[in-house]
């Protein structure tokens, strides 16, 4: 009798505990843009690595930055946005050329600047889902004690979530370039504008290599 009563009490306690365990919060899924956030943080860590800041490592560091970041950007969508209504005037070959040239233009404009980064990293705010396929991702990047707001406009594509615009302190990078490119296309043919971009990119490349060569020479002289 006592044994039966003990079993009854045990069953009663188990019955009480089961609902509690079933009410435990399920594990939360990672943010949709988790891969983007992780890659950006890794890129900033790479930039803070003093070993990668040596002149002999600068090109290798840039290659590593490309590998970390580029896969998370939809350069085709960004290029189309930067050209706007003139996009239909481009042939398929011209579109492909512009996508590559615009990627290099963005690299020259922004990678050169961030390569001197010595801040503490980036903090991401919770995602803001604007629609089923659009997420706004706000971040604050520390620039040596001066935080700046950088917002990523992310679009869901068949290849996953991709960045399609950057908003720096309230200014859209794509909208800013669209003004510049549309002004050029009002004055020049598409092929002329593409050639202007090629020359500008080559000029930037030569200037960058000159800076690297000078840094290598200075380091060599300091070791004598």
Would you give an account of this structure?
This is Toluene tolerance family protein. It comes from Magnetococcus marinus (strain ATCC BAA-1437 / JCM 17883 / MC-1). The protein has 224 residues and is α+β, with helices and mostly antiparallel strands. The chain has a domain of 137 residues. Helix content is 57%, strand content 17%. It contains 7 helices and 6 strands, in the order αααααββββββαα. Strands 1, 2, 3, 4, 5 and 6 form a 6-stranded antiparallel sheet that branches. Helix 4 crosses helix 6 and helix 5 runs parallel beside helix 7. The longest helix has 33 residues. The protein starts with a helix and ends with a helix.
Q: Keywords for this structure?
A:
alpha+beta; six-stranded antiparallel beta sheet; 57% helix; 224 residues; globular; 7 helices
Q: So how many helices? A: 7
Q: In terms of per-residue confidence, which ranges show pLDDT below 50 for 5 or more consecutive residues?
A: 5-27
Radius of gyration: 26 Å
Ends: how far apart? 95 Å
- Approximately what portion of the residues adopt beta-strand conformation? 15-25%
Largest sheet: 6 strands, antiparallel
Shape: globular
Protein name: Toluene tolerance family protein
Keywords: Signal
Organism: Magnetococcus marinus (strain ATCC BAA-1437 / JCM 17883 / MC-1)
Signal peptide: 1-24
């Amino acid at each position: 009798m006592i044994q039966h009563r003990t079993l009854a009490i045990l069953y009663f306690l188990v019955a009480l505990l089961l609902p509690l365990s079933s009410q435990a919060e399920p594990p939360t899924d990672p943010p949709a843009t988790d891969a983007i956030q992780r890659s950006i943080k890794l890129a900033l860590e790479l930039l803070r690595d003093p070993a990668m800041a040596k002149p002999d490592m600068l090109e290798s560091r840039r290659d590593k930055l490309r590998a970390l970041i580029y896969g998370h950007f939809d350069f085709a969508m960004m290029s189309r946005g930067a050209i706007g209504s003139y996009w239909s005037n481009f042939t398929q070959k011209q579109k492909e050329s512009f996508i590559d040239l615009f990627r290099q233009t963005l690299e020259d404009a922004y990678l050169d600047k961030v390569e001197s980064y010595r801040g503490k990293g980036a903090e991401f705010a919770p995602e803001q889902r604007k629609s089923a396929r659009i997420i706004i991702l706000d971040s604050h990047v520390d620039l040596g004690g001066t935080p700046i707001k950088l917002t990523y406009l992310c679009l869901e594509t068949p290849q996953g979530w991709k960045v399609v615009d950057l908003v720096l302190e309230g200014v859209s990078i794509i909208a800013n370039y669209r003004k510049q490119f549309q002004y050029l296309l009002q004055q020049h043919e598409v092929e002329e504008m593409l050639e202007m971009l090629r020359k500008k990119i080559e000029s930037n490349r030569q200037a960058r290599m000159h800076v690297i060569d000078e840094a290598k020479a200075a380091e060599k002289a300091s070791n004598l």
